[in-house]
Amino acid sequence: MTTFFMAETSTSTTSSSIGSSPPPPIVKLAQDQLFTILVLLPIDSLISFARTCKRFRSLTSSDTLWESICRREWGSTSVDVLKSSINSKNNQQLPWMRLYKQVSQLDSVSCHKLSDPDSELMLPSPRASHCLNFVSDCLVLFGGGCEGGRDLDDTWVAYIGNDFQRMLKWQKVNSGIPNGRFGHTCIVIGDYLVLFGGINDRGMRHNDTWVGKVVLSENLGITLSWRLLDVRSIAPPPRGAHAACCIDKSTMVIHGGIGLYGRRWGDTWILELSENLCSGTWRELVTHPSPPARSGHTLTCIERTGTVLFGGRGSGYDVLHDVWLLQVSEEHLKWIQILYNLEDIPAGVALPRVGHSATLILGGRLLIYGGEDSQRHRKDDFWVLDVRRIPSNEAQSTPLNSRGLQANNMWKMLEAKGCKPSRRSFHRACADHSGCRLYIFGGMVDGLLQPAEAYGLRFDGELFLVKLELETNIARC
């Protein structure tokens, strides 16, 4: 990517022809024909093309071209939401080439506190190991564990809309179902929520699957209904502290977790949902190699790349830092370990963690936040994990049953500005549709050590907004 930024400011005017040789056929193409070709090129090839002559450099600097490239790289949803969220005066074109550069070079985020414990608004109580999702322009919060080892069964919804930095008005939804639990997972498929598993305050593990639907009325009244999904007789063994994500419009994958008697699972299960989400079918995915057993890890799907698994606590109670990729190969799902050099990580920084969050952000990378290490030291650091740094030719030529794929420089630590969240673990995070704004709620944080508190822990009930700082000619995203 360095060559891209050098080329952007280059003043080279290399001629399109050498000596008296006739010009190549490509220079005879019309601009719209060249545009059709350029929008398909990899970034490095596009930059090489820009170096050939003034005309081509001018064409490759077009924001119309870079908007199409951003759509290709980031997805149409993120681009459309980004355009609508910026006050574009007189339909002025956004500087897409500059935005692409800033996203690629992202080195900081800004943090804002969105909750006020002294306000008169109703607020969700402090909790950890809950679920937090962004769906239908709303934040949806369900369940979790709280002080005294008790579980919670409450559902809260807050409408976001286009107002991103005001104090949010939470509404409590009294549905009575699902029953109280913590350590469950909840993912978004379309306009629906799909919840699986969890643990109650009696230590009972669940393996039930629920579907939730948020409905907004014209006066911004919000309702949310849950229903038990019919999965027939086959389901994963009961568990909590597992990881889950959506891998397409009708498929969910879960991995690992803690089962009965504290056993940590290393299995992978796939849930295929019917078109109307009225029923589903579970099947176990058995592959070799596959990630070792663990709990408190994360699964995050990156479009066209695969599903990324990171961290967690292993069977020996050790905290892990390995990265795995669940990829489609010859129409089959297989796990591949992504190897990286710890020497590339800044000195004194410990990557192994459990109870962190890993959220897909603009640009197809993961934003890793918080968690705790093997000594239960909680963290407040932000990292970008970019598994796309695996060379495409290596990914294609390396056998899937080999030791793994080598990736260099895929970790980058970010600076956090503003009202930074305190150190925490087992919080939850989710991003809006643009991928520029991340919401963080709850978790276990360091508390004032009291005689009755062996570890000085407390549950948190604050909501934070974390933004990617992108400067444009028009406004700040």
Question: Can you put this structure into words, describing what you see?
Answer:
With 477 residues, the protein is mainly β. It has two domains: 2-8 and 19-104, Monooxygenase; 120-353 and 390-421, Kelch-type beta propeller (Neuraminidase, 6 Propeller), CATH 2.120.10. It has helices at residues 2-8, 31-38, 43-50, 54-60, 63-74, 76-85, 96-104, 392-397, and strands at residues 108-113, 131-135, 138-146, 150-159, 170-173, 185-189, 192-199, 205-216, 222-228, 243-248, 251-258, 264-273, 280-285, 294-295, 298-302, 306-310, 313-314, 323-329, 332-339, 357-361, 365-369, 382-385, 405-406, 411-418, 424-425, 428-431, 437-441, 444-446, 457-459, 463-468. Strands 20-21-22-24-1-30-27-26 form an eight-stranded mixed beta sheet, with no helix packed on it. It has a five-stranded mixed beta sheet with strand order 15-16-18-19-23, with no helix packed on it. A hairpin with a 5-residue loop joins strand 11 and strand 12 (264-273). Helix 1 packs parallel to helix 3, helix 3 (43-50) packs antiparallel against helix 4 (54-60) and helix 5 packs across helix 6. Residues 1-18, 392-402 and 449-454 have low confidence and may be disordered.
Report strand %: 35-45%
Largest pleated sheet: 8 strands, mixed
- Rounded radius of gyration (Å): 24 Å
DSSP summary: helix tally:
8
Q: Do you know the CATH topology of the largest domain?
A: Neuraminidase
Structure class: mainly beta
The total strand number stands at: 30
Lateral arrangement of strands in the main beta sheet: 20-21-22-24-1-30-27-26
* Unreliable spans: 1-18, 392-402, 449-454
Helix content: 10-25%
Number of domains: 2
- Quaternary class: single chain
What CATH architecture of the largest domain would you give?
6 Propeller
